[in-house]
Amino acid sequence: MFAGSPSSVLGPALLRAREGAPELWKILTAHLPLVSHALEAVGGGPSGWLHGQLYSVNILVRSEPARVVFVDWESLAYGPAYFDLACLLFYEATTPEGRSELIRAFTDAGGFSPGPASPAEQARLLLETELFNQLWLIATLGPGWWTTPGDPSLGRRRHDVSRSALEACLTALA
After folding, report:
1. N or C, where is the chain less crowded by C-beta within 10 Å?
2. CA nearest neighbour of 168 among 106, 94, 115, 105
3. 173: helix, coil or strand?
4. What residues does 68 pair with on adjacent strands?
5. pTM
């Protein structure tokens, strides 16, 4: 899934965005120093094995006996340690309370140990990691990801999610 360092996705992401998603290209180039710095921070952080698509549809929870199972492992990769949590935060925890609760549970489970010391540092690293996630999607999947044959509305929704995630990350990091 991840080849090279997080900063190595920037060039391909810019090229793909310029070719097929000019709105995203404008957003990225307008914030290039911030994007570059964020990718360097993610690349300099801890690495580990990742699920790669850790969203609610890939998490099965059983109450009796209590058990959590992760499914859909074809995107298993080695990369930035907080990638899966960043995906969960951006796509599943849609309220500030939900984000705080998820970060607290992750921290309590030892997810930031060793890692950023303060909640502000943790939040920044998660934002930088989500920015990397969005750039990776653009770089590897390209414009075709937003143009889904047979369902143009799905491609538009994917484009809108990428755009809003990029804008949210860049606004929060600025």
Report:
1. C
2. 94
3. helix
4. 61
5. 0.71
DSSP string, 31-49: THHHHHHHHHHHHHS-EEE
**What is the token pair recorded at 141?**
């999947």
Residue 172, token pair as written in the block = 């929060």
Q: In whole angstroms, what is the distance from residue 82 CA to residue 42 CA?
A: 9
- pLDDT band per the 50, 70, 90 thresholds, residue 53: confident
Type of residue found at 171: T
| Distance in angstroms (rounded) separating the CA atoms of residues 88 and 102 | 8
> Taking a C-beta distance cutoff of 8 angstroms, is the pair 126, 85 a contact?
yes
- Distance CA(10)–CA(15), nearest Å, equals 9
Contact 111, 88 (CB under 8 A): no
* Number of residues in the chain: 174
Q: Is the pLDDT of residue 151 over 70?
A: no
**Of 55-64, 110-119, 132-141, which range is least confident?**
110-119
Partners of 50 in the β-ladder: 77
Could you tell me how far CA 115 lies from the centroid of its own chain? 18
| Contacts of 124 by beta carbon, 8 Å cutoff, 6+ apart | 41, 116, 173
